[in-house]
What does this fold into?
Amino acid sequence: MADTLKNVIAQSLECPVCLNTFTDPKILSCSHTYCKACLENLLGCNGNDQMLRCPVCRAETQVPNQEVSKLPASLALKSLIEDMNNQYQFCSNCNSEDRPQAVVYCQDCGKYLCIPCHNAHSLWQDFISHEVLAMSEIVSGKVSVRRYRKCRKHPKEDEECFCSNCRRFACFRCVVMEHTNEGHRFIEAAVYESSHVKSLEDLKSKADKKRSCFQKYVDFIDEQKDCVSNVQKQCTDDINKAFEESVRQLTKKKEILIGEVKGLTEGVEKELDEMKKSAQEHITHWTTIADVVTNKTKIPLDMDALAAHDTLCQDLQEALKQEDPDYTQSRQSSKKGKSVSFKRNVEMDEIALGKIVNAVAKNIALPTKDSMDAMVGTPDGRMAVGCHTGGVEIFSADGQHQQKVFEDVNIRGVGFLSDDRYVLLDCSNNITLYTPEQTKLNVMFETLSYDEGGFPSLTVDGDDQIYVSYRIAEKIHVFSPAGGKAIREIPFDGYRPHQITNYNDYLITESRETIRLIDKQGVVKYQLTKSGHRLIAAVSQWNTILIATVKHDECLINIDEYTNKLKHVQNLVIDYKIEKNERVWYTLQQYRSGEIAFCISDRLYIFH
It folds into this structure.
């Protein structure tokens, strides 16, 4: 009877959360008691540093200054635990009243044994495989005793059943006497234990998967940070290279530019760090609560322990409902950092390193929807946008719409002669010359009709020769500004140009995903192809070639600088989002003041 009482007392000294003997027990406002370390874990799991929710009754307790150590201690429990730990265990096998002190405990027999009983126990063949613990190790806390589940009302009976309604273990006598008429459902205790362990394993597995999901998200953020860091490094390298080629007096300018790069990228890295921190907090949350509820060394025995574990399991189930990470925000943040680049100043008459470009654009709606067909810089440094619905819209470098001319002409192409006369190509493939004051000149050109030549494109070279390309005819006609028939013809070898641009002694032709640099006889000198993307070219103010790569389905553009041999120099704009454009038609130009103009069918983007 004494041993049974000790087992009952020992069971009462177990923390409902960790199922071990209380360590530094603390009392909540609802009077339930837990280990200090268990309460600290629960405080972290609840996501509220100020309030603790009791796992047994769910009552809330205010935590002073977020410190569990300041909660009241259970002095009576601490004293009782110390007394239990200091009390000698006597042999439970001897029948005499003056029983000797135990030296070992048999886990399988559930008995404390003195030296003679231990020796006798060891001689029996059936007892050889029993697990025997030394009392010294039990007292020191190195090992714990596996207690047998005995009914508190009938101490000689094992609790072999589990009531699913009451959430408690019971012996067979309790089942017959107390629960039969209440319609409660019973299962074998061993079956419940097996099911409980499996349920905990399933929860742990789901928590591991959720943790793995967020770990992949953290890894993705690290990759994005690396991309942004690489951009910063590339910009810094470019700046240093330009600095080394310039005069020593530019040291101060170099440091300013590097500071701008860091200022633009470190803010993005901070955003990504905050996202990473949030994801890691989720990982820590699931790890902590999963470890608390999946303690497999013991199965909760009494109602408080079961209630605590039920609550914690429910908390974990609620936590697992957390949505998987959304990569959109981190992609958008990293895109801001990856759009940073260094634009070097290569003009010989100005000593300067250059400037930082961060793909910031003005987004301007054209006056007429779905109308743009051509774009060219004006002699006075503005931008002229030709519309097939009629007219040429003029925009300043800061995006101001300043005027509309030639409203009665349906424009396919626009150009300027060296004396500032307009060259207009209309939708019937007719070329017309106008004075700078928009007066029509009586000059006739013998061009191919739309049915003969197909969709046209126009450009004017430095010698005032006018070039008109034809898609269907697959050739270019070259005209003198005096008018009349074409003075010569340039054939295409098996491809159809969409747009043509004059470039020194060459022409740049565009055929959807291919840019070709050809001489004035039509021989292809250099070629650049990007499969699946639309390429549009323009000549930069530094006489290099600008190429816009359009990802039409994703509504993204990249603008890069190339040499006269179509070798890549640097990125200027990276994955800039544009409006959805059903009509796949784009043009690219650069203002004399350096701004880059990119036009879709009804919007103009000006990148500063």
